[in-house]
Task: structure prediction
Amino acid sequence: MPEDTTLRARHWVAPGPGEPSTWDFVEEAVPDPQEGEITVRVRAAGVNPADAKHIAVPREGVEFPVPIGYEISGEIVAIGQNTRIGSGEARVGDEIVAFRVRGGYAETVTIPAEKAFIKPTTLSHAEAANLLLAGTTAAEMLWVTGVAPGETVLLHGASGAVGVSVLQQAALRGVRVIGTASAARADVVREFGGLPVEYGPGLGDRVRDLADGMVAAALDAVGTDEAVDVSLDLVRDRRRIVTIAAFGRAEDEGIIAIAGSMPESARFRDEVRPDLIALAQSGDLVVPVAKTFPLAEAPAALEFLAGGHPGGKLALIP
Result:
């Protein structure tokens, strides 16, 4: 009998709605790439709250089993016929970063080629695998609120992954950012160009003292009532307040809510990917990584992330 040369790889799947502890780590055949697809040997997979959140409970339109993971960094091992990646021509062996993929928690995965871009040489695989979900979210927050050079904005959750990307992108635009954080994380806010302010009672007054004038916009990356209430108190125009977490409050108060599952958000985030990759390549956008885990320990990584304040991004290494 001829030798079976089918490529097989392990990956994480959710057999049904539930926590990461209910997921399965299975080995399956990796489909050959067809036209418009590439196969990638994953060197690192980004770990994000959305990875678990989106399949924790039943949702309309979600069919199980669901492969886990939205962003990866790795090496092309096969290319479909007549296929270009998102950044143009590519060859087997090229290192790429890909975002808005399906099933990134894997050793090897076949993905739509248009979702892949040549990896910035300035970033490690663990860093590159965490560039785009947080980065595109941050870019959209600045975009929808119309933040302009010379303005002062309030950023809730400034020391988190999205917050750190907001700080860097805002600084490049000449925007002054007052960022909420715990006292223990204030140095992170300063490191990336923000003015730290501790959250908690009296937050609004502390922000006013630092702002020395009007707060033009508020960006909420935490979703607490305090974040929304202080934003409403300090920003005159509710269309210049955005949240990525407080969706119920957004509907009640008439502020903007964004999410990758929303068509307009998805369109913007896809379009801005090349810009963020270029910023990373030039050294103007960095991705702090706190810790890596073996791919087989994905549930442990998500448990660590859920504990809050991991100190940077997390990555899974096959």
